[in-house]
Amino acid sequence: MSQVGMPGADVAAIHSRSALPWRVLLIGLAAMYLPVYWSASQELWQSDELAHGPIILALTAWLFWRSRDRILAAATTSSPGLGWPLFVAGMLIYGLGRTFSVASMEFFSQPLVLAGSLALLGGRPTLRAAWFPLFYLLFMVPLPASLVDALTGPLKNWISVLVVELLYRVGYPIAREGVMISIGPYQLLVADACSGLNSMFSLAAVGALFIHLKPAVSRLHAGIMVAAILPIAFVANIVRVITLVLVTYHVSDEAGQGFLHGAAGLVLMLAALAFLFGLDALLTAVTQRRHMAGGRDA
Fold this sequence. Notes:
It contains 12 helices and 3 strands. It has 298 residues and is mostly helical. The chain has a 3-stranded antiparallel beta sheet. The radius of gyration is 25 Å and the shape is globular.
């Protein structure tokens, strides 16, 4: 019996038709968000607070590319009951953001529009396959100014109190008035950039990616790592402020406010990453010891 196969041209046509909706989605997303990215590159991403934006964008694109086979393989039937509400909500938020030039709304619309599109194209399994890249898009959303102001004040005050208390206990002539720190003949203002809010956001992005890419960790391990991200960033920022205070006191005010002030940001991130990776190593060692003990008991 001879086997009749489908002509090669017909197979190519079917694959082309199946890929067409995904290509349309990519073209639509590019038309919507490339202008947003361009505007951000000229303004928002020029600031120290939001300079991580292009990095998050590149990482998100890589995450989607890395997951592309799993996303396409998961595509089944459309889920309009889930997809249309997400898509319409995202488009409304996008339209309002573009109309009134509200960057946080423009960027917040991204995961909604994309999640709705994926649900319409491939259903809930596609959303599950793409959940982490969709979640990671949230790190691109600029925090509203009102929220930043509400969080920055208390953070600066706590950092000032802790830095002064720690250095006073080891014998430094230090005092504070509000967020103004006096040490020897110098006075230093704990500015908004020293509140640690930006470092918390950046470390959360790094930590989330690290936990996602780390193979086979337990939910308890991942939960502890996630819960530790913000405290680690806060402690690391205290290390940064202490470093600047000590450099100013022992070297000069120019040294504390010059190149070393910028370098302290690197010290902050390195310290935070060291804390995070150290915690991960500790949790991994504890887990391995438990497994070994369980094996011996058996």
